[in-house]
Amino acid sequence: MPMPSAIPTPHSLLERLRQQPDADSWCRFVELYTPLLYQFSVKLGLTKPRAEDLVQEVFAILVRELPRFEYDPSRSFRAWLWTIFRNKSHEFRRRFDPLAGANPAPQTLIDPNPISDLEEAEFNRYLVHRAMQIMKAEFAETTWRACLACVVEEQAPEDVAEELGITKEAVYQAKSRVLRRLRQELDGMVD
Residues 2-16, buried b or exposed e (16+ Cβ, 10 A)? Predict the structure, then answer.
């Protein structure tokens, strides 16, 4: 009888998109980043349809560029993503606002960083929160509730175990599984 094949450990989302991009990985990435890119677009003062168009164009660039992206732990994925967004937004503005031209008046320039108020910690919190919303379906309800109760609600493991009718060890295992999967998924994207 042949040995069952080993189940491969899933790489981070970023690595999956770089090495072997598949539809599921792209869907996950789009689901994770669309609200953030849309928020950036709205901060530029774009109407809803224009903001949606800009987000689509940014994703078109990312489809081409992410497989070539080399993660460098000393640099920020957020900064790389912002650079792509900023460059595309300038091009987008020139296309739809011919008066912007090559020498726009200073007051008509797109804010060089409309996310300057979105600090690194806030960006990371956003990604973790969004990834957790998306990942929830990957876990049994009890596993998910145990992790959230310990991590988000800061309840004692023994209280969570009693509330959920599981052992304290099961609570620790649930917390560990969810957090390990979250770290794995966001590796390279959260600085």
Answer: eeeeeeeeebbbbeb
